[in-house]
Design goal:
Blueprint: E1 45-48, E2 56-59, E3 74-76, E4 79-81, E5 88-91, E6 98-105, E7 120-124, E8 128-132, E9 167-174, E10 177-178, E11 184-186, E12 188-194, E13 197-205, E14 214-216, E15 224-232
Antiparallel strand pairs: 1-15, 2-5, 3-4, 4-15, 5-14, 6-9, 6-15, 7-8, 7-14, 9-12, 10-11, 12-13
Length: about 240
């Protein structure tokens, strides 16, 4: 009896490569970040490493007679701090699908309550705001607390640390897929991790923006930020530069 011929393995999703195909493009090798010393991953675009605000421009307030775009926030000891009424900071560059990493801390001295306590925000242009707030034992409306997609979705859990302690956001923006006629084939999706916990998972966002910047809000509270970087996201089997 003749032996059965070797059967080809099934295709993986997408129908291009079979299971175990050695011809499939290898993922890019990346050195992961260190949470011990704030080192960014090796493929990241570092926007703030504690030294200067050159990657940001100022949005002057409506009542500001100074129209310069030079930031006025304080920079010291490896962090930047909001100078109340000095203006929101906007990234000078725009990005496509990406992971945004931001570390932040509300004032250790508790002043105010609800929205008046450690208020700021990560304003992703065309996508919405991920709220920054002292939400440790501080009640407010759920879609306005820390890690909420402001005025839309509360976080799935409240992962807030105590006032003055450093916290982290990892915000994953996956741009919409659009065909040549402008039809949306797949909506934009937003995932947020607060202190390592998923608080929003692949939330559909009504935006077709393929390039966008983001801003750190001056809400007149001395909130601090550090270790800000962005990682471009690639599609499966995309032959990224190595």
């Amino acid at each position: 009896m003749a032996a059965e011929p070797n059967k080809e393995k099934p295709f993986t999703p997408g129908g291009v490569y079979r299971q175990g195909d050695m011809q499939r493009p290898r993922p890019k090798v990346v050195t992961p970040p260190s949470h011990l010393n704030g080192t960014a991953p090796s493929d990241a675009i570092v926007l703030f490493d504690g030294k200067n605000l050159s990657s940001f421009k100022r949005q002057p307030r409506r009542d500001d007679t100074d129209t310069s775009d030079l930031p006025k926030w304080k920079v010291e000891a490896g962090y930047m701090e909001v100078v109340p009424k000095s203006g929101t900071l906007d990234t000078r560059d725009e990005f496509s699908s990406c992971q945004i990493h931001i570390e932040w801390a509300t004032p250790a001295e508790v002043v105010g309550k609800s929205q008046g306590r450690g208020n700021s925000g990560v304003l992703i242009h065309g996508w919405g705001e991920v709220q920054v707030l002292d939400s440790f034992e501080n009640d407010t409306y759920p879609d306005g607390q820390a890690a909420a997609i402001y005025n839309r979705y509360p976080p799935l859990v409240n992962a807030s640390r105590k006032p003055g302690e450093w916290q982290s956001y990892d915000i994953i923006c996956d741009c919409a897929e659009i065909d040549a006629k402008g039809k949306v084939l797949k909506p934009a999706r937003l995932t947020v991790m607060h202190n390592g916990l998923i608080v929003h998972h692949a939330v559909a966002i009504e935006t077709t923006k393929q390039k966008f910047g983001f801003a750190l809000q001056d809400h007149q509270n001395p909130v601090r930020y550090r270790n800000i970087w962005v990682r471009p996201l690639h599609r499966y089997d995309e032959k990224a530069n190595r």
